[in-house]
Amino acid sequence: MLEDALKQALHLTDDALQAGQAEVMEVRTPITGELLTKVMTHTPEQLSSAIGDAHQAFLQWRTVPAPVRGELVRRFGNTLRAKKAQLGKLVTLEAGKIVSEAEGEVQEMIDICDFGVGLSRQLYGLDIASERPEHKLSERWHPLGPIGCITAFNFPVAVWAWNAALALVCGDPVVWKPSDLTPLCALACHGLLQETIAEFDEAPEGLSRVILGWKEIGEAMTADRRLPLISATGSTRMGQAVGAAVGGRLGRSLLELGGNNAMILTPSADLDLALRAITFGAVGTAGQRCTTLRRLIVHRSLKDEVVARLQSAYQTLRIGDPRDADTLVGPLIHSHAAEAMADAIKQAKEQGGAVWGGGGATGPGIPKGGAYVHPAIVEIDASAEVVGCETFAPILYVLEYESLEDAIALQNSVDQGLSSAIFTEQFREGERFLSPAGSDCGIANVNLGTSGAEIGGAFGGEKDTGGGRESGSDAWKNYMRRQTQTVNYGSALPLAQGVEFG
Question: Which of 406, 429, 452, 483 is the most exposed place for a label (fewest CB within 10 A)?
C-alpha cells in the first residue's frame, strides 16, 4: 500500500524529533494551511553517506544489462499504475493541484517508465568509417554515475520520475532532494521504488536515496564530485547558483528554470479553440507551471473581443478546494505566492496596465487558511518592465501587435525561453513561427497552448530557462558518458591524418 511505503520512508521517529537530533521540517497543505506532519531533515553527513551508498550501488548496477535495468523500471511503472489514484490524492493534498492534474502528473510518471523500458534496448552507439585501413572506429555510451536530482514543488513527483526512469535504465542511481514544500510526495515515491527494488534480485539497495533539507543541502549536493550530473528544476536564480557550482568542479548540470511563456493570436486564429488553450494555459495549476501562459500577444483587430471573451470565461471558473471534482483553480502554494501576485499587479497598475480580476478569493466552497486568488487579466504595453518578470501566479498580460514580425519579436524579447505557441490558420505564419527566424524557445506549438508537453519530446528551453532537456528524444544521453573506441585489427600501425613518424 502507498500508506505503508510512506510510513517506511518516514524513517525518523517522533522520539528523535523530541530529542532534537535534527532540524524539523513542517509539512503543511496549501488547501487550508494546516499542519500535516513533521519530518526530520538530513544532515550534511547523512547526505554524504547517501551519496556513498549510491556510488557503491553504481559499481554494481552499471554492469547489469540495460534491458534488465529496464525490467526494474517496467515493474515500477506497474506499481505506479496500481497506486495512481492514491498518489494523486497525496499530490493534491501536498501541492494543491486539482485531482485531474494530480493524477495526470502520476500518469506522466507511468509514461516515462514505459518510455524508459523501450529505451533500455535502444541505447545506440555509432559505427564510424575509419580513415585508416584495418581499423574499426565506433562510439559507445556507458553509465555515468550517481545522479543528483533537485526538484520544485509544482511537479512534486513527475520531474523526479523523468530523471529517475531514464537514469536507472542508463545504469545510474539517483539521490533526490525534493522541495521542502512537498517532502511527503518524495518519500512516498521513494518508498514505492524501494519496494520494487527489494523484489528485484539484480538491483542493489542504494539505487534510490531521498534527502530532505533546505538550501544548504542542495549546495552540498552540487559541490560533491561523486555526483557527475546535477539535474535541477526551479527558479533562474537557483539555476545560476547550481550551474556555477557544478561548472566550477567541471561537472554536468541539467537545468529546467523559468518560463514567461507567450502565445501569439493571429487574425485567422480559431478563437474558440484558442480561448480554451489560453484559459487552461493561464490558470491551470493556479498559474504555477513553468509552462504557464503569461503573455498573450494578440493582433490589434482582435484584442477587445478576445479580452471580453476571456473575462466571461474566467467568471465561470470554479475556485476552491482542489479535492472537489468541479474545482478548476486550486490554491497557490502559500501566502508568499499570493503576496508576490499582489505586488506584480500593483506594479502593472503603476506601469499603465488595466487590470481585471486578481485579489484574494473567498466564499462558499473556498477553504479558509489557503491562498486562493482570482486569476487576473492585465492589458498593458509590451514595454512595461513587469511583463519581463515571471510571477508564479495566474496573471495573464495581454499585449497587442500589428505585424507577425513584431509579434515574434515580442515573443522572444524576454530572458526566458521555455514554451511558446501561435494560433493561426495560415500555413506560412505557422511555418515562420517554427523557423530559425521564429520562436527562440525550446518548445514551439501551433494551434495548441504552451502547457501540456508529451513524454516523447525532449522537454526544456533556452536562455534563462537553462538549456536542459529531460524526458523524451535523446535526453537519455545526459545520463551517460560517450566513449570513442578504435580497434586496430591489422598488422601495421598507420597514423591518422597520414602522419609519418619513422
Answer: 483
Residue 142: which residues within 8 A CB-CB, separation 6 or more? 62, 171, 480, 481, 482, 483
- Classified as helix, coil or strand, 120 is coil
Q: With beta carbons less than 8 A apart as the criterion, state whether 146 and 175 touch.
A: yes
Assess whether pLDDT exceeds 60 at residue 469. Answer: yes
> Cell 591518422 appears where?
496
SS3 149: strand
* DSSP helix/strand/coil, 361: coil
Tell me the one-letter amino acid at 406: D
Given a contact cutoff of 8 angstroms between Cβ atoms, the answer to whether 247 and 269 are in contact is no
Angle between helical axes of 183-198 and 2-9 (0-180°, round to 10): 100
* pLDDT on residue 13: 36
State which H helix or E strand residue 346 sits in.
helix 335-350
The pLDDT score that the predictor gives to residue 15 is 41
pLDDT of residue 453: 87
Cell of 457: 519530446
Task: Tell me what the mean pLDDT of segment 192-202 comes to.
Answer: 96
Coil, helix or strand at residue 287: helix
Q: What is the DSSP string of 364-432?
A: TT--TTSB-B--EEEE--TT-GGGGS--SSSEEEEEEESSHHHHHHHHTTSSEESEEEEE-S-HHHHHH
The three grid cell numbers given for residue 189, joined into one nine-digit string: 515515491
* pLDDT on residue 2: 61
- In angstroms, the CA 173 to CA 435 distance is 39
Q: Residue 485 burial (CB < 10 Å; 0-12/13-18/19+)?
A: exposed
- Cα 457 to the center of its chain, rounded Å: 13
CB 79 within 8 A of CB 195: yes
3-class state of residue 158 by DSSP: helix
Strands 462-463 and 135-143: unpaired
Q: In whole angstroms, what is the distance from residue 462 CA to residue 460 CA?
A: 7
**Residue 410 contacts residue 382 (beta carbons within 8 Å):** yes
At residue 229, the 3 state secondary structure works out as: strand
C-beta separation of 310 from 279 below 8 A: yes
Calculate mean pLDDT across residues 202-226: 96
d(CA 464, CA 414): 9
Confidence (pLDDT) at 466: 96
Q: In sequence order, which residues have a C-beta less than 8 Å from that of residue 338 and are 6 or more positions away?
A: 332, 360, 371, 373, 393
| Residues 69, 413: Cα–Cα separation, whole Å | 44
pLDDT band at 17 (very low <50, low <70, confident <90, very high): very low
pLDDT, tens only, 287-323: 999 999 999 999 999 999 999 999 999 999 999 999 9
Distance of CA 266 to the CA centre of its chain: 29
In the prediction, which pLDDT does 371 show? 98
Give the distance between the most distant pair of CA atoms in the chain: 90
In angstroms, the CA 226 to CA 190 distance is 21
